[in-house]
Amino acid sequence: MKFYLAILLVIVAVVIADKEEDDVWRSYKKKYNKNHSSKEDANRKRNFLKKHKAIEAHNRVNKEWKMGHNKFSDMTEEETNVLLGTKMVKRRVKSESEPSYPLIERALPTSIDYRSNRCLQPVEDQGDCGSCWSFAAITALEFSQCKKTGARGPLSEQMLVDCDTYNFGCNGGDFTQAWQYLQDYGGAVNGSTYPYVSGTTKTQGTCNSRSNAVVARVGYFNWVIPYPNVTLIMSYLQSEGPLASAIKVLDSFFYYTSGVYSDPACIVSDEYDVNHAIVIVGYGTVPATTTSPAIPYWIVRNSWSIDWGNRGYFFIRRGVNMCNIESWAAYVRVA
After folding, report:
1. Where in this chain does the record put each Cathepsin propeptide inhibitor domain (predicted)?
2. Catalytic site residue 132?
């Protein structure tokens, strides 16, 4: 009798678990407007439930940062990898003279946050195109242009995707190569007249930029060197504004929602182990408590829409070169 009762309880538990999984899957599809064929739905559900279990397991034990569902939760690894378009070329130190910033004499604030600065354009969505490099290049250039002239306006990522022969469009690129292209071929054009479309078409278009449409010219750019140097990055954030950089993206990062991101697997020895371009827009520190030490962090802008992370931004641990973020910081100045 006890044996049959145990079997019955197992069956009931399985039925309840299946119903809960069905409910959370239906809720997810409704929230993110996911419409699949019957055949595809089963595969998408399997992807989603795998992520769902990983998210729940992470959130039970990790107190520093949280994961949550987003538009990526039912995607395959091949689909999410399309977003990772950074292909950094071998680092080249520019030979031009560069003004120094004496760190000992330079008073650095305890925190910087450019997210609400008028010179920072709204977060955009690169879509299913590996164009993160163009967004990193343009974001920093937009800020520099506004800082110098006071003119606040979008510049065109799509022009870089379509026209930049130094990079590879939706197949990836290097933001410093993008600045070099803009310096060599005239400059950046207005984003309103050459809007971003690659996220919906999945392809790069035919270049239709005209030199007389240029509204911002690259005057100078360089790496933050020597690297990795936390204090130097903080100094350049104060003097130059937002800095383009590159990181290594692990699967856990796709589902970041809040807190200070860190992952032991993201402290890597190879500086070229990066696959995604982002923009550092500030820094700060989570205060210490009676149960936990202070946590220094970078404030970082992504290009996966405001529906990802913290309205398009994330915090990542500062001072340990997490995911190589402190090895690739670079700045640009308009002419």
Report:
1. 25-80
2. yes
Taking only the tens place, the pLDDT of each residue in 119-145 is 999 999 999 999 999 999 999 999 999
Q: Of the listed 132, 163, 170, 323, which one is catalytic?
A: 132
Instruction: Please tell me the total count of domains within the chain.
Output: 2
240, 109: one domain: yes
For residues 21 and 99, state if they share a domain. Answer: no
- Annotated catalytic residue within 119, 170, 276, 321: 276
Q: What is the pTM of this model?
A: 0.91
End-to-end CA distance of the chain: 85
User: Structural domain of residue 162, as residue ranges?
Assistant: 77-334
Q: Which of 70, 302, 321, 324 is catalytic?
A: 302
Active site (annotated) includes residue 117? no
Buried/exposed 32-65: b ≥16 CB within 10 Å, e otherwise: eebeeeeeeeeebbebbbebbeebeeeeeeeeeb
* pLDDT per position as a tens digit, 206-242: 898 776 789 999 999 999 988 899 999 999 999 999 9
Q: Are residues 205 and 258 in the same domain?
A: yes
